[in-house]
């Protein structure tokens, strides 16, 4: 598959989807997809078919994260092959429909790229979410975006953790990319967050256009934050939360958390310290939707990945 | 002029602190739960220090689902008409619940109503701590406001006056003889931020301290306070067919609650980048800028006038004054 110059040759990325409303109350993606469905000029690129798509219309209509079950956890092999039609939870039915249109997941017919647009209440800024450290196309795209957006920052979160990774809507595509921008409350549309997401997507589509036109991207390194561990809130014997994210940790996504640093604060003001063995980089700190998933934040470790040179086959 | 005439007001014997009126406004929910836990543990040594408060979780079903409401907004169900007329729809959970709360904390407008309700709320808007009341002459509420400002001088604390009669007032706090909502932001719904929780906890504690102090006979001097009286609300520009919004709060207005908005100042930014400016003729103070729950109510922001009010000196009625007052109202009723 390598050319004489050492570049990995990959298929043209012709079919691109942009998902909004995978969580119905994450408003940047919902708004952008609705906008582009009405007028797609902004997302048009030479040699690219870009399809904007609302993945969870019922949740969007109710301005809620999901109706029956989290769509962004629903794309398991079991769900995708489940029988039961209308008796299945709404989001499982949607997952099967999305898999029909944009997949099937894992097959040659699947879409080349899917961007899945999300917001978070955490202070994560612009984050690109990568599902595989070996996806050189995605790594090169992320490198391109990071360089183009300088001095503004766009960090890369890698979730390849065997236990903590999950079956996302975007995972139907050959190259899945999550776009997570925060902080923004659920149900709210903030203009700065909206514009930031728009800019990232524009750069991503520029990259695809350049790639499809035959540009070769030389080898590069990409700094990523690899998901390490999920940390729950301290709870009592009945499962009730007994402490909040400590004021020193609140809003400090991507900053080092060292052993002994304040981590939680009980309701009567006592500090609970981080007891890990080394420095970690927490993110998704105090995300509203994760209270029910038993997650106050996730820890990550910094890593540098090497991306091979790539060009169109 | 009797500038320093002291107003004597009845003792505040029964005080209620309510959380979870909206089931996803987490500071109040966690605070009331903690206060309930402390009460259950029997914090005997503090009994004489602060007035015991009735602790209420107003909308338990919405709390369970971490939603603002199940069927309809509970905090709009407390008008006199809604509470006393024929039950509009017994299928609506909040209509049933509002009557239960009115029975426990009210009945609104009757002598049996609790003396003071403090209803805890959070907002996604950058409003700091606001006391929201339908009255601009409830001296109890206004003195509490001034007291909080003095005790918590590092927190922006404001008083918002919604200009409606007590009968027309629709919020839970209007059920008490005195009442206000304590609204703190910014905090996303479904999240508790430790800094916001800390401010709410301190606010409630100071309020209870003030009530204890008032009840013990201390006089509070007259003075002046600045309040914000609501004038109007502005909706987002919307698509005439789909009714979807077509613009967001302008980045220069976002988070600038209580910063004066002048004619021609930026108000909205359309999705194509155009600035829409404020077309009013009077400079006004915006608040509830980009509150999540107000999208469905057709409100992008509210606007208020700032007014300086004079508050009289007050103290609690003595036993004799209270007796005399009761006899007077009894004979008035007979007439």
UniProtKB/TrEMBL annotation, chain A:
Q: Which Gene3D superfamilies match?
A: 2.20.25.160, Zn peptidases (3.40.630.10)
InterPro entries listed in its UniProt record: AspA/AstE_fam, Aspartoacylase, AstE_AspA_cat, Aste_AspA_hybrid_dom
Q: Name one GO molecular function term.
A: metal ion binding
For this chain's record, the cofactor binding note is: Binds 1 zinc ion per subunit.
Enzyme's top EC category: hydrolase
Q: Which residues form the Succinylglutamate desuccinylase/Aspartoacylase catalytic domain?
A: 13-207
Q: Which Pfam families match?
A: AstE_AspA_cat, AstE_AspA_hybrid
Q: Where is the AstE/AspA barrel-sandwich hybrid domain?
A: 221-301
Q: Where would you say this protein principally sits, based on its record?
A: cytoplasm
Q: Which gene encodes it?
A: aspa
Q: Where does the record place the catalytic residues?
A: 180 (proton donor/acceptor)
Keywords associated with the record: Cytoplasm, Hydrolase, Metal-binding, Nucleus, Zinc
Question: Which residues bind Zn(2+) per the record?
Answer: 23, 26, 118
Q: State the compartments where it is located.
A: Cytoplasm; Nucleus
Quick check: keyword Zinc in the entry? yes
* One of the record's GO cellular component terms: cytosol
Recorded family membership: Belongs to the AspA/AstE family. Aspartoacylase subfamily.
Record bears the keyword Hydrolase? yes
Q: Which SUPFAM superfamilies match?
A: Zn-dependent exopeptidases
Q: Which domain of life does the UniProt lineage start with?
A: Eukaryota
User: Binding residues for substrate, per the UniProt record?
Assistant: 72-73, 166-170
Q: What is its EC number?
A: 3.5.1.15
CDD domains found in the cross-reference section? M14_ASPA
User: What is the name attached to this protein's record?
Assistant: Aspartoacylase
From TrEMBL, chain B:
For this protein, what is the EC number?
A: 3.5.1.114
Which Gene3D superfamilies has this protein been placed in? 2.20.25.160, Zn peptidases
Q: Where in the cell is it found?
A: Apical cell membrane; Cytoplasm
Task: Report the residue ranges that make up the Succinylglutamate desuccinylase/Aspartoacylase catalytic domain in this protein.
Answer: 13-209
Q: Where is the active site?
A: 183
Primary location class: membrane
Q: Supply the alphabetized keyword list.
A: Cell membrane, Cytoplasm, Hydrolase, Membrane, Metal-binding, Zinc
Entry binding sites for Zn(2+):
22, 25, 121
Annotated ranges, domain AstE/AspA barrel-sandwich hybrid: 225-305
Question: What is the gene called?
Answer: LOC114865726
Instruction: List cofactor names only.
Output: Zn(2+)
Q: Return any one Pfam family short name.
A: AstE_AspA_cat
Q: Which family does the record assign?
A: Belongs to the AspA/AstE family. Aspartoacylase subfamily.
Textual note on the cofactor: Binds 1 zinc ion per subunit.
Q: Can you provide one Gene Ontology molecular function annotated for this UniProt record?
A: aminoacylase activity
Q: How does it sit in the membrane?
A: Peripheral membrane protein
- Source species: Betta splendens (Siamese fighting fish)
* CDD domains in alphabetical order: M14_ASPA
* Gene Ontology, cellular component aspect: apical plasma membrane; cytosol
Catalyses which reaction?
Answer: an N-acetyl-L-cysteine-S-conjugate + H2O = an S-substituted L-cysteine + acetate; an N-acyl-aromatic L-alpha-amino acid + H2O = an aromatic L-alpha-amino acid + a carboxylate
User: This protein is called what?
Assistant: N-acyl-aromatic-L-amino acid amidohydrolase
Q: Which InterPro entries match?
A: AspA/AstE_fam, Aspartoacylase, AstE_AspA_cat, Aste_AspA_hybrid_dom
